[in-house]
Amino acid sequence: MKSETITSEQFYASTLSESHNEELIVKSSIFNFQNKSKNNNNDKTSSPLGIAVLIISFVLMLTGAFFVYEFQSDFDQFHIDRINSTWGYPFLILTILLFFFQTGVFLYNVYLYFRYKPIESVTDDLLPTCTVIVPAYNEGKLVWDTLLSLAESDFPEHKMQLLAIDDGSKDDTWYWMQQAKIKLGDRLTIFQQPENKGKRHALYRGFELGTGEIFVTVDSDSIVKKDTLRNLVSPFVVNEKCGAVAGNVQVLNNKKAILPKMLNVSFVMSFEFVRSAESMLGAVLCTPGAAAAYRKTAVFGCLPEWINQTFMGQPSDIGEDRAMTNMILKQGHHVLFQKNAVVLTSVPEEYTGLYKMFIRWGRSNVRENLMMAQYVFKNFRNESKFGARLLFINQSLKQIMTFPLLLFMLFLIVTHPLLFLSSTFLAILIVSSFPVMFYAKRYNFSEAFWAYSYSIFYTFGLFWIAPYAIVTANKRGWLTRGLSEIK
After folding, report:
1. Which residues of 417-448 are buried (b: 16+ CB within 10 A; e: fewer)?
2. How many domains does the chain have?
3. Does the residue 56 lie in any domain?
4. Where are the transmembrane segments (predicted)?
5. Interval 280-318: pLDDT, tens
6. What pLDDT digit, counting tens, does each position of 370-414 carry?
7. Is residue 166 in a domain?
């Protein structure tokens, strides 16, 4: 691809540099807010709509608790009738066993979390050479912000190769890549796919062209902190068995919209708690597309299989990050998580974009869990395999129990609607208190309450995602491409 060196474009870029720098300052302020800025007066929960949502959430949960108390005799009678039924007693035994298993897994995760510590950055002379790959499709000006945040990283310039691949975008993504090229010069190399072939193929082109010892992939709607890259690649120096590293994903666009506020708390729980525990087992199940790093030899150890991956006879065009992680684990490598490698990424702001994103993730989890079943109980690594197997069993049980629990939920709704609603809201109040406390301790007390609202929203608005993803796991399509809300 020819580099862009047109004088008029250089002049235009220089006239915009001041405004672009101001925008980067705004982006940096978002990072500062995310990093435990508990005393910030600009509280994201202070909008009238946000306050109303939180109040309604608490009213529902407290009302549920009240009716559980009022209906105690009805609950007792329901349990007696269920135990005396043909199917009730076996189902009760099964639910008790699942409860104790899940409780045990949770407590084990708590233990692992307190033992977890991110690896500190190594010195500049020890840092490996790094190829950063940014695939983009219809991201517009967001790709400019992404590339400039990467260029400002505290990483030796002579050790970093920055590649941006436009995957046949139909908007002005290519224009903003050209502008970034003009500003960054030889530090950035840009490519344009002749047609839209999907994120996997864009990444594949980057892998083929990359010269670094470590490959880093960053989504084109994400902004990295100044020290993210060096923290992300340092584990490869410290741990020779490390094959991949997951970054710490937080939400970028959580200033106004309700869903990103909820997802921000959910992401912190998913990454800083769950992946910290997985990292202690050397078996993080998914390195996120927003920011992940891979050892070059590990990537090339599975690259042909990865680019040609199929499911039920169809080429796989989703779940490229989950698939790459799975194939690297299969080689016996460790996959770790770096809490200190923070990246902020845009998430859907409306229901349509959100459920489509979750469907895509759900289908990928079904596919990759089936793939993991083919090797996880074999001798795939020399070290302990207990952690990877425990994670696989836990995820498999969730998928296996999806339909029995769904049918039981529908049965309760039809036969005992008040008992179902009251017990569900009380359960949300109890179970969601842990992520609330976790987020409050790590970041901001008032924002932590969004965990309650998110649990209610997910239980009643997204409960259908898991069963739908299972029965449609063979379907292709990115789903969220072209939706304005993911911007």
Report:
1. eebbbbbbbbbbbeebeebbebbbebbbeebb
2. 1
3. yes
4. 49-69, 89-111, 405-431, 451-471
5. 999 999 999 999 999 999 999 999 999 999 999 899 989
6. 999 999 999 999 999 999 999 999 999 999 999 999 998 999 999
7. yes
Residues in the chain: 487
Tokens, residue 78: 């329901």
- Rounded mean pLDDT of the chain? 89
- Supply the CATH number for residue 269's domain: 3.90.550.10
Residue 305 lies in a domain: yes
Q: How many CB atoms lie within 10 A of CB 156?
A: 13
pLDDT interval class at 483 (50, 70, 90): low
Range of the domain at 188: 1-70+116-487
Q: How far apart are CA 440 and CA 445, in angstroms?
A: 4
